[in-house]
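Question (not urgent): is this output format expected?
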Amino acid sequence: MDGGGHRDEPRDETPPVQANSVRDVVGTVVQVGRVDTFVSSGDAPPPVTVPRELPPEPAPFVNRSKEMSLLADGLARREPHERPMVVVLSGPEGIGRTTLGVRWAHDVRDRFADGQLWVDLERVRQRGASGISDVAADFLRAMGVHDRWIPSDPSGRFGLLRSKTAEGRFLIGLDNVANSAEVMPLMPASSRSAVLITTHWELDELVTDGAEAVRLAPLADEDGLRLLAEHIGAERVEAEPEAAADLVRLCGGLPLALRVVAAQLRRRRRLSIADLARELGADPTLPRVDPSMLDRLRSEGRAVVNSACENSYRNLPDQARRLYRVLGLHPGPCFSREVVAAAADLPPHTADELLDVLHRGHLVEEDESSRRFRFHHQLIRLHAAGRAHAEESAEERDRIVDRMVRWYLRTAEAADWAVMGVRMRWPLGQQRPPEEPSFASSSAALSWLDDERITLLGAVRAAAERHWDDVVWRLCQALWALYLHRKYYHDWIESHRLAVEAARRCGNPWAEARMRSQLARAYREQKRWEEAHDELAEARRAAEDAGHPQLLASVVEFTGLTHFDQGDYPSALAAFRYSLRVNEELGDRRGIALQLQFVGRTLNRTGEHAEAAAAFERARDLLAELGDDRTKARVLTGLGDVYRHLGRLDDARAVLMEAVAIMRRLGAWDYESDALEPLVELTEGPSRVEHLRRLMEIHLSTGSPRAEEFRARLADAER
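Got this back:
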């Protein structure tokens, strides 16, 4: 430019060199030469979501106070830095696992402010292998995670779930869990969280790892009545208390069954509770309930109780299903490991393994004190019996029952030997007990008979129904030890009526005479004199047909005892002296001692105390030689009374104390009571109080109406 100005330099139009570097970026990169305006169009951050997924609170709910207390205690004793609390509520179908779980979850939900998540895994399993992964995705969505951020692979989902639960307080409810493997991927990471699990199975891995395990039992009768009253109204239950109690027992304490019968009663307002029980074809005492009753427990046209039992059954392995059917044919409510192995015809270790499967599946329960098992509730037992009749042939069912009944026969015969020793029994002349099974003591044998008495009566019934006549009367022969010591008159009379019929059918006059004599004693002790004499007359006829002198002497002895109890002492003494002569002719020392005892008792009643003492003392010495402590103790009881009449009070106390000690050791409570009563009259101070307390305990334990008499006497003595 001229004139002193300067000239513009030429402009360089070459674009500058751009140096771009991108590192450690995964995904698409877009390079833009120039950006004049930037507008963000991304989604806004999602809102914080607190899931509230618990099902509605159950109503009505019968308070399971014991279980709720266990759950509360478990939550209270958690350390602040432990892993999440895990609770496992387990039990059979219909027991109320979910109901209890939901109620507890609602009670504690305020402690888990970051959310409560819930899922029914029974429905999830129907989706297939990806089901648990889908649960994790659903939980993440419930916590506000957008679908685009939920990983597609299971491990990514489980990892993200742990991250999202690492700091908060979450309650996760997993309903109908099948195994521990379903739970582990869904566990929250925060130690302040909790997992509530309901399951049909024992989840051993979780329990071993520290989970709180609560095994649900059927409702107690009182709670069952409350639940029924909540559904149908207290006034209907109060109007028929006995029928309502029967219906609750019939339902086995199963809440599902109680809801079904309550629905039927609500729908049919004019139907009485007793009428419904009759419609169901139910006798509330098993084993006489008809298995088809399960099909009549219907709701909206569905046999829901049967379906619940069927679900549990179908989830069992094949061998466990067979054992379940076998146990459905068991004649009583409880069964030992030994009879299970015999019934299923399995080695003991295999039977134990299968029992464990049924136990973990909440189909059977174990009584820790007796080590025997029973079905979890009566309706499961009915279902098992129904499956046995549906899937096993009649021939196979009979073979199973035969193995059970014969096991009980062998064991009862061994127990009878342990308690009674040598006595008149079939086979005649047997002087040694069977080698197996064995009992440690007479008391242990009597306790076994007592514990199994309901099942033993069931075995008699089962054998009688099938006309296994020899088994029927032989079982009753073995049960003599039980009925003699513990009475149970209703069982005694029913079983022996069946035994008399069986002995007649199989044409065995010896057995008929024995069974009639034993039945007559039950009638005699209940003062049913006419029936006692009728049986004894028939027993004498059968004994004469049998042509067995000692058997006839035994029948005459039973007749003499009946005369004695009626106060006809001359007739009683004549009968006992006849039996004594027969036993002396046969050289049967035990028979001689027994008849001397009865002669002594009769002479004591007629005032001939010196002669009575001589008879008792001779009987005592014979029994001491024979080692028959049980009968010796009975003789000592009679001798104590004779000594009292003779004024030999110190001798009376001594022999009565010896009798009490023997009977207590043998577990023969009834005979112990016989010795304690006269001893009370011969003692004062603390000893008298002790004897009266023991008398009260004995009479309470046997249901005797005299228990209150001894309670009152004890109260007077303690003043």
